[in-house]
Hints:
- Helices cover 36% and strands 17% of the residues.
- It is of the alpha/beta class.
- The chain folds into two domains: 3-97 and 361-463, Alpha-Beta Complex (Aspartate Aminotransferase, domain 1), CATH 3.90.1150; 102-358, 3-Layer(aba) Sandwich (Aspartate Aminotransferase, domain 2), CATH 3.40.640.
- The strands form four sheets. A seven-stranded mixed sheet has the order 6-12-11-10-9-7-8, sandwiched between helices.
- Strand 3 and strand 4 (73-76) form a beta hairpin.
- The radius of gyration is 22 Å and the shape is globular.
- 53% of the residues are buried.
- Residues 89, 149-151, 154, 177-180, 247, 251-252, 280, 282-283, 308 line the site of ligand PLZ.
Amino acid sequence: MPCVLASPYDAPMTIVDTPATVIGGPALPQERRLVTPIPGPESRKRMERKSQAVAAGVGATVPVFAAAAGGGVLVDVDGNSLIDFGSGIAVTGVGNSAPRVVEAVTAQLAKFTHTCFTVAPYDSYVDVAEALNRLTPGDHAKRSALFNSGAEAVENAVKIARHYTGKQAVVAFDHAYHGRTNLTMGLTAKNQPYKNGFGPFAPEIYRAPLSYPLRDGGLSGAEAAKRAISMIEKQIGASNLAALIIEPIQGEGGFIVPADGFLPALADWAAANGVVFIVDEVQTGFARTGTMFASEQFGIVPDLIVTAKGIAGGLPLSAVTGRAEIMDAPQLGGLGGTYGGNPLACVAALATIETYETENLAERAREIGEILFEKLGALRDADPRVAEVRGRGAMVAIELVDPETGEPDAALTSAVAAAVHAAGVVLLTCGTYGNVIRFLPPLSIPDHLLVEGLDVVAEALANA
Ligand code: PLZ
């Protein structure tokens, strides 16, 4: 029975009973609806306020202010309903304000909001640790520690690996993204906008070449691994190396899927040489790629796995999970933080994990992937500017190039993204060369919105 509630914007918000009530949160009409140009007058006003109050370095991809979001839409303060292809950068896998998350957080809010786990522990933190130990790849004994952001968890993984090995050097890869804190800026590859002017960076960080099938002349996974390992052995030496850190599919770097065999060869080399193999699944984790973790699809078992983003339905939480003997190496009190594993975030994570599992969202991610590959594959076949469609599950991208030269076309990419935003779709770009359009819809998006949003992208590309 449809009903009408007071809404955060002028037009009344119709609440309809759709599957978005199971996952994906407030049952907003699942439609693309433009009632003003994008941005509308209310968003324009707020953008002006933002520029007077918020530091200029804090950007905004789409020029609209959010009022509500759920299922596969984001509703702005002017009452426009945009199709969401970003999930807040791969965070709201279960949808925005997912019902189980709302219920769990609301109940916890009334009990206690904070004790600091390292002052007075509580069950939900331990429950999350147990869930992560159960769900992450490998059946060895594991431990977890919880933090707030992806970058903070990456830093802790490096701390733990250094402590365990007694070694200092860390290898990250070309096109890597691991965060914006000092250590993680050093691990991140791309200068603009992440590192420019923010040095000096932490010492003992080295960069190895990746497997990037479109751009490394068809090197096999084994050959690309051999190239990286040879560089590591010649320039650093395993006896100095604490850890390798890698994203199984690089996220900000361009949704780069390494050639088969690349990741297992690195993992084997690390295991044989006393080097901790850290896999950063901050963006790929939690059903996003069609399995709970992308590592499963590449046949690797991380020594330490870093998770965040999709873990808690939008609440800030991150984790390092790994081999018990490595995780237990740092001294008592060596790991912690005021807010790490906050009780609201922990109950949100438990509700989120339950949603992934009971609603089988990994399978839903694979279905979304089939639609993405079918529609984007047709685009690639018809348009030589689309050099490649790649990804796994609901983490898929197209790389745009100048068809004459094969050179990355960043200008075309931004023009397409701007046109798509204006047409009412939240769309993100990425890539070292700024020429990749990425698709990261919430797993709660209905098929018709997915198809409609992809048609908007196809039209924008045709007109660009
Ligand atoms: N590792 C693989 O993708 C975050 C960053 C967006 P935090 N990616 C989105 C931006 O512009 O800041 C990310 C990631 C991988 C680590 C991180 C860092 O996670 O939660 O943003 O710190």
